[in-house]
Every structure is written in structure tokens, then in C-alpha cells.
């Protein structure tokens, strides 16, 4: 295999700054609660990074098995930040899987980040400006302002596009991971349980020593899953996009309150953590980490404002807040789900899924 | 003659002995032994009271021999000899018997057996002392003169230390210029100073000590006679052909039509027949290399009588009390084809690479090609599984990383390190860490599967089964391969003149690495620097200063005393067969004519008292003082005598 340190240099943009500080002692792998005899990391991947073994990295699944609990960060005698290096490999892999090429741009170029967020933000505002309904000012009529028959279909179309892109990426991921291994279709069916389980509860993160990490992550996860479901069912329950908001004890509203609090709490804690840099996993922030956190926080916060303004029956503030809420939601979902950080939500369980399928296929041979 | 009033003193050693050996029984068993005047036991014989007891007994009872049965003679033999001396008795009428290690400790579980053994040992001591003779230490004068061979960093350091004490130093260097190997280096760790700068600093001091240091360059030792305190050395000073100052040397050098490979730059550049190895070289006069010079006279036309092409070698006799070897090492020369050496153009050794760094400006070029990626292969000619060089050369890991850092910083070169183990020991670990930070890539090979070098286009490909990448074969395309060669011992004839022993690795060997680290088995011969073992400059100069300190302990006092345990020849018995002469590996016994008959004579100053000649002599004409045939026989008899219950 050819050593290629140009590749190593390239990965610096993805946050792999400390690659060569590692002297391969293996402490990190020994301490990692998630590394196993079969799937060893992070040292192995740092080694691949040091030598620039691109093909090894592209075809590997292990980076997705690391949940960045940060234990390795603390034990590395060379302060090589093994956990962050694993994170940078995941960023790189995300761009490898992405067939549109946008992911790579977002990870490596600040201009592209600002530009794409800006365009989606203002485009959304512009569309709202074009398509909004009558503005009732004597009391709050959100549905009149944003007619459900426009908002909901638009949402579904947007969601479908994202899902298609993401699934396309997952398909490519599958190709890279499986390599030449052929697995019978039945295995894919049998292993579906793995996929669902890991998607739902992020079981592996609980293996980390620091349980609060899992908890925070779980809060965030359940928060946006709840929010996601609520938005989907709004078309039936009319709890949100409505001129007559239901009373506070409405189950959808209770669930919504939980989602807001959970997400606001988790994102705020994460932002403070990254600013303070005390915890190992928060010491190094790639520009995309900030982009994700800030967009998410603003989206949740503006959603919260909409709800408050509505409660106090303040029509104009409600409409403005709603427009801005949408304008943050679109880049958040549009950029994060298929192209950057949120795609990990899909890649992680899929990685385990493909890994199991591959392993069983190889055993079966 | 028999010493018939012997005092025997058995020590408890605070229980160390008496817990096992019945010391009272020992006293009882020896007090009536022939020639014993008094036998006593005591808790701590080495204590002030114990010593006083012996001293008083000697004086009051008029003892003429003493046996102390206690710990190891290594611990307290000298202590008790001094007691005898204080009491006015010859200190060699003493025998130290070790009943602690040899009886009590060795036979802990057999107290009776231990006691019996102790009795036999003590009796043998008594028998030996009864036949002992008063002996005198051998005193040797040590005039403050020393010869140091080799003017590398070690030789110069040692010379300076001694000269500052007012000792006369003869410093002999075989090359026309001083400085040794480090002058050929680039930025040397740990200071980062260029090798020649380090030497310049020492040379400045050297100039100040001119009155005490006689420097002979281009000089070799022709013969050495004599022994500690009295070495007579003949040296030959080979002609430099440049005999005095001239302010147009640069022009003379330019005019010289002859060009040869410059050994200072390991043959990578050329120099003239009249040359300086490097700009600031010392002594300031250039030298003419007569192997290259064709006596065309061009230089003479420029510098006139400053140059004498007919200068003759000169011999000189020097006296020295002590000789220090500072003859250094040679870098290992790889075999042809070893890692592509001499097979591919761009495979060089580390010393060559350092010269290349020193000579390059702007960009790193070799044979017209720019060098951007360099692979270093470690442990070349060191740590060999088979072969002579089984040792680690110590300097090369750090020196390689140091050179790689310099290459990276000065020329932006990317470096790849193919190593077995990184041994940047002690504080040099920071070099390793810094190299890592600067993006140096490390790959580890097993000696079972050494890397291979091949050529592909204008690149060299290093193939290595990298143990850090799970044994995968990694190919590294590079512009240059540098072999981190080890240090190998330099075999010089002077060493054999003095029969200084070599270690297993072929370097000069010290008497004891911890207890006598800079002395050799040859009295008055010291070793400094890398001639002793692979050393970097830090270690080389430390040992150089240590030899200076060691030498000064003799030279400042003006004399030394040697143990009297050497051999003596009974001329009556000696038949002059000469067997002993052949047996002595120190050349310390010789045959001389005495009234037409050949007789053996001992050279007292160099005899080590090993007794080899005494053992070989068929006539028992040679006796080792303090261990004569009489004494040994008496000891054996006494030891075999029955011990009654
Ligand atoms: C490539 C390379 C890089 C190095 N880099 C470093 C570094 O960065 N830092 C560091 O601390 N060390 C470094 N070293 C080690 C350093 O060179 C040695 O520690 C140092 O040279 C030892 O000094 P020395 O005086 O003992 O021996 P030498 O330097 O070998 O000097 C011995 C002298 O004795 C003379 N001589 C030999 N035999 C005779 C004889 N029979 N008669 C008269 N004269 C004789 C020789 O001509 C020579 O001048 C490096 C070595 C090499 C090869
Ligand atoms: S990242 Fe740190 S702990 Fe892990 S192998 Fe490298 S040096 Fe050791
Ligand atoms: S961050 Fe945690 S999971 Fe990832 S490699 Fe380090 S210890 Fe393992
Ligand atoms: S110092 Fe390093 S390169 Fe030199 S022999 Fe020892 S281990 Fe090998
Ligand atoms: S005792 Fe040893 S050193 Fe002395 S002369 Fe005899 S053989 Fe030589």
C-alpha cells in the first residue's frame, strides 16, 4: 500500500490536526469502552490517517461505532485527541458518502457554509413573503397567515427530497462498507431489528463511562423525534398551525413542551460546554459543530417564541417569529440531515446494521 | 621465620554471624591452635571499641600477626590494616577471614556445619599469617605530565581540564586539524550548535592554554615504553608542508591545480591538495596532502617560503606519567547493496546527510536533484542479530531525529522514519515529540523483515512491513534514503602497544563500568570519549573530564602507591627457561643476563599480581607476595585438620 501524506494533509480541514502527535502506544484503544477485539479503534484509524491510507478509511465502518465519549482523549499521553481524530474521520466519511458533493463543500469551506445557510434562510423568508395568507391583526390567526394546505404539502415535499438524498448516501455507504461481500437479502431483513434498536435508543452510547453524555444525547434525540412526529401529525390534530390553539393540557402540547425544554437544555449545555472547553469532547470544535448547534438552538428558540406570542395573542410577533422559525428550520434540516452532522443519526445505526449483515454473510460463507 | 604471636578476633556482626555460627565455639577451637597468642569474640569488631581492643592487644601482648574473622574483606580489610599500622605493626601481617558470607549466610540452615566451616577458615587464616612477611606498598613517582592521544572533542576537553591545573599535556592528533567527528556534524543536539562552533569554542580555550598544552597535529605515536609514572613515548610528526603564516593562503589554494575527493565531506565534494577541511579549522595553517600533491609549485609561487614541499617527518620523545586514549570511533560503513547503499545514487549515510545539510543553501539538492521527501532507516550497523555490532550505538536515534528536524525546518523536507525502536533516551524524548508534531511519519520494522529499497522512475521506494499498521506492507516513495549508521570501534595500533583490553564490542574496556569507569586494566592508561563505547558529545566530554579528574589525583599528589602483592623471583631456583615471560599478558616479566646466566626479572610497576607466571614456573621459582607457596600450603593443611566436637 502506498503511503500518501497528501491525504493526511487534506484531512486537516476536517479537524484532523493532531494526527502526527500520536505515537501509536494504543492506550486509547485499550481505554475505549466501545472498541472490541474485532472492531478496534481509535489507534488503528489514527495510524491510517498518519500514513494517508485513504482506501482503508473509506471502506471502514468503525468510525461510526465511536460515539465520542471522549475517554481516549483523557488517557492519551501525547494529547493527540484520538476522539477528535475519529470525529474528523466521520466528517470525512460523510463527504465520501454524499453523492452531491455539497457535504464536502460544507465541511471544508466557510464561504460555502455561510452562503448555503444564507440562501436557504432568505429564500424561505421570500417564499413566506410571496405565499402568506391575509394578515389578521386584531387577534392571532396563524393558520390564516400560513395556510395549512400550503405549509404541509411544502413540508412533505421538502422532507421527501431530504430523505431521498440521505438514503442515496446510505446506499453509497453500504457499497463502501460491504466492499466485495455479498449478503443474501434475508439477512438484511433479519437484521432490521438492530437498525431500529440502535436508531431508537443509541444503545452504544450508554457504554461510555460518562452516563450524562448518553442522557443529554438521548434528551436531544427524543426531543427532536417528538418534534418531528408532532409536526407530522399536526395535519390531523391541528394543535399547532391553527387559529384556535387547543388548551394547555392537550397531549400534543404537553409533548411539545417536553421537546422544547429537552432540546433547548441539551443545545444550551453543549454550546456552553464548547465555549468552556472543559470536557474532552468539547475541547475541539469544528466550524460545522458550531453551525449545527447555533441553527438548532435558533430553530428551537424561535419555535418557542411562536408558541409564547400565540399564547399572549400577539398577532404580528407571532407571524414574524413563525417566518423566522421556518427560515431557520429549512437550512437546519436541509443542510444537516443529508450533508453534515444529523446524517450521523442515520449512519450510526446503519453502520451497525451493515456490520452485522456483513459479519453474518462472511460467517455463512 | 614464623609469626608466633597471633591475635584472632571473631566478630558477631551484631547477630549476622553469631545467629548462625557459634562464635564462642570458634574462639575455643582456635585459641590453642599453634602460634595463637590470644583469641576473642566481639559484637562489632569494626566499631571503635573493637579496633581499640585489637590495637591495645598488639601493643600490650606484642602480637606479630592478626586475623579478623568477620565480613567480606571488600568492606573492612583496609580498616583493620590501618589498625595494625596504628599499633606500629606492618599492615600486611594481617588476614581477613570472611565468615559472614562464606559461613553464616551461605549455611543459614546448618548452624553446626557453618560453625565447623568457620573454624576451618579461621585456622587457615592463622596458618597463612604465621608465614606472612612484612611488605611495603610500592611507591611510584608521578611527575605532572600526560599524553592524550586524539584531539576530538573528548581529547581537547580533557587536555584543557588538566592544563588548567598546571599539568603539562602532550596532545597528539593524527589528522592535520583538531576537532574529530563532531566537527563534521550539522546542528548538534542538545545545544543545536553547529559542530564546528563547538570545536571553535574549545579551540579558543586551547589557545589560552598554549603554555601547558603541546599540540602535535599530523602526528602519530610510534612507540611506547615504560609504565605508569614513567611512560616513554616516541611520536612522529608528519610534515604539513606549510610551515608558517602567509596572508595569501586563499589564493594559493585557488591556484592549486589538483582536486581530490574531500574526506571531510565524506567524498561528496572535492578539495585541493592544499586545503582546510572547513573555513575556521585549527591550526590555522592549511595542510598539503602529499598523496595528492604533484609538487607543481603553484602554491609556493604564491606563498613563498611559508610552504616547504620538502619538509621531512620529525620524531620526538615525550615523557608521560599517564596516557589517555581519546581516539574516538568510526561511523559504520554499510556494505555495498545494504539497503541499496552504493547501488542507488540517493542512498547516503547519516554523516553524509549532515554534511549535505551543512553545505546546502536555499534548497536541498543532491546530484542535481531536489530532495523533498527523505526516508531514514535506523539501526544500520547496530543491534545486529548476527555479526560484530550487537550493541546499540546510542547517538543515532537522537541524531537522526535532530537532523530530520533541521532538514524540515531549513528546507521543508518531509521525513519518514523507518525504525526498530526509538531510543531518544532521557531529555531527548522532546526531540521525538517535536518531530511528531512537525509531521514526521514513523514506521516500525522488525529485524526479521528489514525494509527493502527499490527504484521506480526518479523515486526510491522503501518497502516496509509496518508493525504499527498490523504488519501491512507500506511503500514510501522518497527522493533520498538516509542510513542511520552506528558507531564502530576504531582499531589503532597504539592500543596494541599498550595491550589495552577490548570489550566484547571491540571498544576499549574500562576496569569496571560503575566502580572504575575511566581506567583500563593497564595501570596509568585512561580512556575518554567514544573510544570506550558509543557516546554522544555530552557523554564523551563528561568522561573526558572524568579522566582529567582521575589523572589529576595522581599527578597533583606527585606519586602513587601500589599494593605490594606482586611476584618475586628466587634467582637461585630460576633456570631462565622463559616460560613465565610468555605467560605474562602484561609484558611485566623479562629475562636478563646475570653473569652469563639468564634469569627472570619482574617489572614491578606494571606487574598486576595475577600470579600466572608463578603458576607456570616449573621450578616454583616465582612467588606471589602475600600468597606464597609456603603460605598456601600451610593454609590447606590447617583447613584439613580435624575439628573435634
Ligand atoms: C552523523 C553523526 C552525528 C552526530 N550528531 C551528534 C549530535 O548531534 N550531538 C552529539 O552530542 N553527538 C553527536 N554525534 C556523536 C559525536 O560525534 C561523538 O560523540 C564525538 O565525536 C566523540 O568525540 P571523541 O573525541 O570521543 O571522538 P572523535 O570525534 O572520533 O575524535 C577522535 C579523534 O582522535 C583522533 N585519533 C584517532 N586515532 C588516533 C591515533 N591513533 N593517533 C592520534 N589521533 C587519533 C581522530 O583523528 C579524531 O580527531 C554524532 C556523530 C555522528 C557520526
Ligand atoms: S492517540 Fe494517543 S493514546 Fe492513542 S495510540 Fe496515539 S498516542 Fe497512544
Ligand atoms: S471517543 Fe470514546 S468511543 Fe470514540 S474512540 Fe474515544 S473512547 Fe472510543
Ligand atoms: S540509538 Fe537508535 S538507531 Fe542507534 S542503534 Fe540504538 S536504537 Fe538503533
Ligand atoms: S604476576 Fe602476572 S602480571 Fe605479574 S609478572 Fe607474573 S604474569 Fe605478569
Please tell me about this protein's structure.
The complex is a heterodimer of chains A (365) and B (645). The two termini of chain A are 27 Å apart. Chain A is elongated, with a radius of gyration of 22 Å. Chain A has 2 domains: 91 residues, no CATH class; 263 residues, Fumarate Reductase Cytochrome B subunit (Up-down Bundle), CATH 1.20.950. Chain A is 68% helix and 0% strand. Chain B folds into 5 domains: 130 residues, Rossmann fold (3-Layer(aba) Sandwich); 178 residues, FAD/NAD(P)-binding domain (3-Layer(bba) Sandwich), CATH 3.50.50.60; 58 residues, no CATH class; 155 residues, 3-Layer(bba) Sandwich (FAD/NAD(P)-binding domain); 59 residues, Alpha-Beta Plaits (2-Layer Sandwich), CATH 3.30.70.20. In chain B, strand 24 and strand 25 form a beta hairpin. The interface between A and B is medium-sized, with 16 and 22 residues. One iron/sulfur cluster binds next to strand 21 and helix 11 of chain B.
Shape of chain A: elongated
Look at the structure and give the mean pLDDT of chain B. 95
Q: What structural category arises from helix and sheet content of chain B?
A: alpha/beta
From the 3D coordinates, which CATH architecture of the largest domain in chain B would you assign? 3-Layer(bba) Sandwich
Task: Provide mean pLDDT of chain A, rounded.
Answer: 90
Query: Separation of termini of chain A?
Result: 27 Å
Report the order of strands and helices of chain A. HHHHHHHHHHHHHHHHH
CATH superfamily name of the largest domain in chain B?
FAD/NAD(P)-binding domain
Instruction: Compute the number of structural domains of chain A.
Output: 2
- DSSP strand (E) fraction of chain B? 25-35%
Main beta-sheet strand count, sense and barrel state of chain B:
5 strands, parallel
Spans of chain B with pLDDT under 50 lasting ≥5 residues?
Answer: none
Per CATH, the class of the largest domain in chain B reads Alpha Beta
Number of helices of chain A: 17
Assembly of the depicted chains: heterodimer
Low-confidence stretches of chain A: none
CATH fold name of the largest domain in chain A = Fumarate Reductase Cytochrome B subunit
Number of strands of chain A: 0
CATH architecture of the largest domain in chain A: Up-down Bundle
